[in-house]
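I would like you to sit down with the record closing this message with an eye to the fold:
=====
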Amino acid sequence: MKKNLFISIKLTMVMIILCAVLYPLFVAGIGKATPGGGKGKTISVNGKVVGYENIGQKFTDDKYFNGRPSAVDYNSGGSAGSNKGPSNPDYLQVVKDRIDTFLVHNPGIKKEEIPADLVTASGSGLDPHISPAAAYVQVKRISAVRAIAENKVRTLVQKQVEKTILGPSVVNVLKLNIALDNLK
């Protein structure tokens, strides 16, 4: 019995050192080697950090491009999807409400023209990107609110489209809105 107890204590100590000390140090070391040093890639304007490149933000003012909806209201403390499927009536109502809201703020756009990523949340709830189509469908509203020619806003969107290696092209909403604020 004493022999088994001593082996159990030794194994517990080894696992504590391995799991509670060595593994976290290893992960922290990898984080330090990444861009941003494990603190994330910040985006600054005039020396002030305004956000992170890979965490979405909520933009509700009509003079800005809207990002993808968030199931966690953009709370980066805990990312999550809604876990509701297309057969869930509550989920369908949320999507319908998002469509109705979008149509109110974007007159002249038809329901069929709204890209899915503007009315459905991503799996993480923090997606900082939208599709180019989702950005282009908002150009008319931005142009009208800011009194900027549509072709100028469309060109700005075109310049912000990021090509990805394996997936579709995307637009980072925060970077796009910063570029929009700097547009003369």
Observations:
- The mean pLDDT is 91.
